[in-house]
Amino acid sequence: MKRRIAKLAEARDTTPHAFMLEAIRDRLDAEEARAASHAEARRRLARMRKSGLGVPAEVVFDYLLSRASREKPPRPKPRLVVSRGKSGYVAMYEYSPAESLVGVIADRHQHEAGYRSL
Where is 16: in which H helix or E strand? Predict the structure, then answer.
């Protein structure tokens, strides 16, 4: 490993020690970014479970495929999952904070809408 590091360091016109420090810093940056991403995902999952709002997986996949194709689709609207034991209903709604009103646009059973139990 020492020879490999020395060879790469020389190619980059730096010392082996500086090369190793840079490699460690890059790895730390990547791991910290990964940890931050996982923490954000856990916060979002907790918020989703608390609020009951979610978007069916197939809707998310369609959205991501459209984005990957350089399209600009509208963001999927969250749905409210109304629990009934191990199942429930999904309601698509619009919320008007100014009037404190919720308008239900559509509803269906969560299995029909593509949800699975967590």
Answer: helix 16-51
For the chain, domain boundaries: 1-51, 52-118
The predicted-structure confidence for 25-79, as pLDDT tens digits, reads as follows 999 999 998 888 888 878 877 877 777 777 776 777 788 788 888 888 888 777 7
The reported pTM is 0.52
Residues 20 and 36: their CA atoms lie apart, in Å, by: 24
In this structure, the number of other CB atoms found within 10 A of the CB of residue 110 comes to 21
Which residues lie below 8 Å from residue 80, measured CB to CB, with a gap of 6+? Answer: 52, 53, 90, 91, 93
Distance CA 47, CA 55 (A): 13
Ramachandran bin of 103, using left for φ above 0, alpha for ψ from -120 to 50, beta for the remaining angles: beta
CA 94 – CA 49 distance, rounded (Å): 19
Looking at the chain, which runs of residues are DSSP E strands?
Answer: 53-54, 79-84, 87-96, 101-109
